[in-house]
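Table S4 entry, tRNA-dihydrouridine synthase.
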Amino acid sequence: MTIVQGRVRDQRTATPARRERVLPPLRIGPFEVDTPVVLAPMAGITNPGFRRLCREQGAGYYVCEMITARGLVEKNPLTFRMIAFDADERPRSMQLYGVDPESMRRAARMVVERDLADHIDMNFGCPVPKVTRRGGGAALPFKRKLFERIVRETVEGAGDRPVTVKMRIGIDDDHHTYLDAARIAVDAGAVAVALHARTASQRYSGAADWSAIARLREAVPSHVPVLGNGDIFSAQDALDMVARTGCDGVVVGRGCLGRPWLFGDLEAAFAGRELPAPPDLGQVASTLRRHAVLLCEHMGDHKGIRDVRKHIAWYLKGFPVGPELRRSLGMVESIDHLDELLSELDPHEPFPAEADGPRGRQGSPGRVVLPEHWLDDPDDLAVPFGADVEHSGG
């Protein structure tokens, strides 16, 4: 096994055969990366430690956890602790959330004045009830004029820093918003749009409707990148999405949980190279340990080792690890303790087929919680009372 800057590679695939590049580099404003892949911001996941681990596997855009405009404007200490990037992390991508145009403009201006990030992504895709009941996330694009004002104010506040928009198909099957929202966002200055091809009512259940990504690609000007999101669990999934939709890149969320090497697979696939061999259990354990070390460096030993516990089940999914060892790993107390427990694994155990496919919580579809009378008038410009949340990362 060879580990180079955290990348796990099998010696047999060190010099893979070359094929034609699948897609050109992905450009977001002035920034360009060879691999057209974006790490989706995930609360409690995409901190600097996890982002570094993923960046060590392959190129792409790596977005930090969601930051709320109100938390930023009111200088909330938790919010500012979350805005952390490695010295070599470029571009520094931040996802910004808010429902008040003025707060979003002020927050974007702070990003510029304090040089907090190089790229702002706007969250209009969150389906979580505590967000949609305030009119935020996937609920907001239904309010066309308010949505347009929020995007425009953010773009103006961001100055020359690129602003992108991520959204869902709509609230539910009776309220699709994505085509109008994408046109509005581009007209307001967004330089790229990303679509999670589910409605808010689906949450993460069922299958993503990739045909919606294809319709979106047809609906916006060809020079504006369209990114597809939903059910990317392997490099082949990404290639299939591009082939079926014509999208310019993919956004990866749950698919990389416990599998940061997915970004290395994606880099190889889009460059037209053969994929690395799947890691055996010894290689997975090495990556898990690297993840734990990075979290401890970022959070401190106590918080870092506790945080890695939630990742362990994802890393070991499908491997024949006994229940007692799994429980012990779920209560690991230190790096030394982790080393002791990982030494009990069979390093030669091959990567199991059952580890492929969906990861993380699927949930079940359900009614989207909205503010009272939210669906009465799509042109209403009023900001919902108490809509902006102060704390970030939710």
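Residues 1-17 have pLDDT under 50 and may be disordered.
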